[in-house]
Amino acid sequence: MASLRCFLRSGKKAVTAVLRREFHGTPPAAVQVTVRDALNQAMDEELERDERVFLLGEEVAQYDGAYKVSRGLWKKYGDKRIIDTPITEMGFAGIAVGAAMAGLRPICEFMTFNFSMQAIDQVINSAAKTYYMSAGLQSVPIVFRGPNGASAGVAAQHSQCFAAWYGHCPGLKVVSPWSAEDARGLLKSAIRDDNPVVFLENELMYGVPFEMSEEVQSKDFLIPIGKAKIERQGTHITLVSHSRMVSLCLDAAAVLAKEGIECEVINMRTIRPLDAEAIETSIMKTNHLVTVEGGWPQFGIGAEILARIMEGPAFNYLDSPAVRVTGVDIPMPYAKILEDNSVPQIKDIIFSIKKTLNV
Amino acid sequence: MRKMLTIISNVLRGSASRNGARVVVSARTYADFTPQASFDIKKCDVHKLEEGPPLQAVLTREEGLQYYRTMQTIRRMELKADQLYKQKIIRGFCHLYDGQEACAVGIEAGINLSDHLITAYRAHGYTLTRGGTVREIMAELTGRRGGIAKGKGGSMHMYTKHFYGGNGIVGAQVPLGAGVALACKYLGKNELCVCLYGDGAANQGQIFETYNMASLWKLPCIFICENNKYGMGTSVERAAASTDYYKRGDFIPGLRVDGMDVLCVREATKLAAEHCRSGKGPILMELQTYRYHGHSMSDPGISYRTRDEIQEVRSKSDPISMLKDRMLSNNMASVEELKEIDVEVRKEIEDAAQFATTDPEPPLDDLCNHIFYNDPPMEVRGTNPWTKLKSIS
């Protein structure tokens, strides 16, 4: 009798399993991948694909990466292709740019983009401008990558967002992934791009898992630089964001959906060139715009988006002034309560949406 | 044989004067000239090196004529640029190289065209020795479409194959050069990179960062400090706690070289190149040289140094005169022959200047091109929201 019950139970399990597979419709090979692992895999595959690609930066080799993004790469590829540098950003960024000029395809890691300020002359004057100054004689196929923006408790000198600074300069492509899929597809595109690409990661996103379909896992999965993605369809208002703030926008949208407000959430993916068309198309549908960023307000990402919308066809579709949600205009404080109140929270986004919609 | 040649040359000379045409005829035949000679060169001070270059250099007649021609071309090209600048046909920054010709020519004589080179903004001489033509250099200075960078770079941003400019930010070219050297080592083609900077740049932090990494990773990099005694208006004594620039690499072996003597520069470069190619890592050379012009065309160059000093260098150490005297006194060339080269060079410069002043400026629709390489065409915002300009790779 017991064995019969066992048999029936296992049979029921089997049937449910089959039913579950069919109802969900997810390809069996979808996996959960953290942003960190997505970056790691992307670099691994590109290192394998093209022997001119190499990685240099502080602690990228034997330490496996300050944030473990390059874990395992030194073991696999050795000293020639994964290079630990001394703590000399200006020097090694310049060396990376020179190597790119002479035919290699370097990935130059800044431990955080705050340290890139020491090397910013090499990024702008040696990398970004050279193809133009040489009228096409000298290209610079380089990727500068690393965590950007606020982290947790690292205080003022380690929390600045550089999206606006780099986004300002012609000759650079500036990319800001949010999800694991973004990280993977955009990093591959950046490495294969023949131009200088600034790749702004986010430390707080490194450990966040995302589902990755089989298509995304393929070795040649690329996300085109310069194209935004609509993460959530909506009709009442357009939210435009990049990097970690996309998560907060989606959370705010989920809360507001319960009140009958449907937000369209656009993940910019690329800062420069900015996909203004995607934003305009959305505004023509929703008639309202709120941008959300972690960086400072003045002369920032939101400022640029709003200016473009003013100057473009979507202005006529706005039913209320577009507004920006940004970090507070102060150096980042240390104490948790202060830090939490220095960056946009979900409630700030909801508040701004309701003000814009006048509800 | 000699008698026959003399007869032939006499006949030719005779017919030339009869026709009244100016025929190029050497008064003496090639067999008369010394094919090569050995010259004493100054001993180089060394730092962490067993020995410097040999104290004698062998110069062949061919080499001598070629060095003479190239140095004279640089000299005349720079003087022409001076003229054009004063006529306001060249504008902006213009940093002239006259006086330092032995450096560019001597270095190139010690390496191959397949090697790599990068320098700062005093770059016209190197653009030439690295394969650029006077025409395209001058047209770049005047900002015309026939310029080496299509008029978009100007004086400080000229590029050719294996020559990475022309760099405007003082000292930034040094890490770049080490990066080129890293690529040389990585790709295993036995090439090296010559990485130049001035006495002013020598105090830059990024240069010391570069010394460190180049040495750690044994990059095939020849660091060369062109010490012309003044960083803009500041003499070396006022800028550097140690003016022994060849020692400033500390753990990197160095040598101090007479930069006014093309043979000294060549021999030192050969030694340095051998050092790099044998995998020993970087090496540093200080070339003691002098610029006749001020820092740039906006600097008369006499507020921080005396006219006497400039005149003294011109009369006692001019690189072109030095080579000329050596060749003439050793019967390696004739006065007429060298004069002929001068005439040819002058003509080349005149033609180039003519081209540089008559070639049209770049077309306006080139304005936004060359932002990105290998990209589809894109739109670039003009000065106002309605102006959308086109950019092609």
Explained architecture:
The complex is a heterodimer of chains A (359) and B (393). Chain A is an alpha/beta fold. Chain A folds into 2 domains: 32-217, Rossmann fold (3-Layer(aba) Sandwich), CATH 3.40.50.970; 229-357, Rossmann fold, CATH 3.40.50.920. Chain A contains 14 helices and 14 strands. In chain A, strands 3-2-4-5-7-6-12 form a 7-stranded mixed sheet, with helices on both faces. Chain A has a 5-stranded mixed sheet with strand order 9-11-10-13-14, sandwiched between helices. In chain A, strand 10 (237-241), helix 10 (245-257) and strand 11 form a beta-alpha-beta unit. In chain A, helix 4 (89-101) runs parallel beside helix 5. By secondary structure, chain B is an alpha/beta fold. Chain B has one domain (36-362): Thiamin diphosphate (ThDP)-binding fold, Pyr/PP domains (Rossmann fold, 3-Layer(aba) Sandwich). In chain B, the strands form 4 sheets. Chain B has a 6-stranded mixed sheet, with helices on both faces. In chain B, strands 1-3 form a two-stranded antiparallel sheet. A two-stranded antiparallel sheet of chain B has the order 7-8. Chain B starts with a helix and ends with a strand. The model of chain B is unreliable at 14-26 (pLDDT under 50). Classes of the chains: A alpha/beta (359), B alpha/beta (393). The interface between A and B is large, with 44 and 49 residues. Chain A: It comes from Sinocyclocheilus grahami (Dianchi golden-line fish). Chain A: Pfam families: Transket_pyr, Transketolase_C. Chain A: It is an enzyme of class 1 (oxidoreductase).
